[in-house]
């Protein structure tokens, strides 16, 4: 957790199967796509454009965020650097490693964020105070 930086976060392309008969596309996530087993799946939707989600870091949990519909920004921080990544393609997701503060904002109308998580929900894995997060990063 301590050594992860904003550069440890990465975009992963999800294979896209294009239908030759123009019936739409299909993307599949199988075990070799992600560097973890999926233990929990949830999604965010109907988020007002002026609201934000997240505002925390995880000690152990890894997450893969996919913009199923619409777009949103993911602001990531490692205590020293900040990056903003716009997610707007359903065949590209963002892998967030432990020890990275994240905030999701600027949701477009109808945006849906699908999250694949490496662990089941565990409140003790969350760091919800930014100052506490900074303390964890320097330990």
Automatic annotation (TrEMBL):
Sugar 3,4-ketoisomerase QdtA cupin domain location: 9-136
InterPro entries xrefs: QdtA_cupin_dom, RmlC-like_jellyroll, RmlC_Cupin_sf
Pfam families attached to this UniProt entry: FdtA
Domain of life of the native organism: Bacteria
Designated name of the protein: WxcM-like, C-terminal
Organism: Bizionia paragorgiae
Source lineage: Bacteria, Pseudomonadati, Bacteroidota, Flavobacteriia, Flavobacteriales
């Amino acid at each position: 957790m301590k050594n992860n930086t904003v550069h440890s976060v990465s975009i992963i392309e999800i294979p896209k199967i294009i239908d030759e008969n123009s019936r739409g596309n299909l993307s599949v996530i199988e075990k070799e796509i992600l560097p973890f087993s999926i233990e929990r799946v949830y999604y965010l939707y109907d988020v007002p454009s002026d609201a934000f989600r997240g505002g925390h870091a995880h000690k152990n949990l890894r997450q893969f965020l996919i913009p199923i519909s619409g777009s949103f920004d993911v602001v990531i921080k490692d205590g020293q650097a900040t990056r903003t990544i716009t997610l707007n393609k359903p065949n590209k997701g963002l892998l967030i490693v432990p020890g990275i503060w994240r905030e999701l904002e600027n949701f477009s109308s109808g945006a849906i964020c699908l999250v694949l998580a490496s662990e089941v929900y565990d409140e003790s894995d969350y760091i919800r105070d930014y100052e506490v997060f900074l303390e964890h990063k320097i330990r």
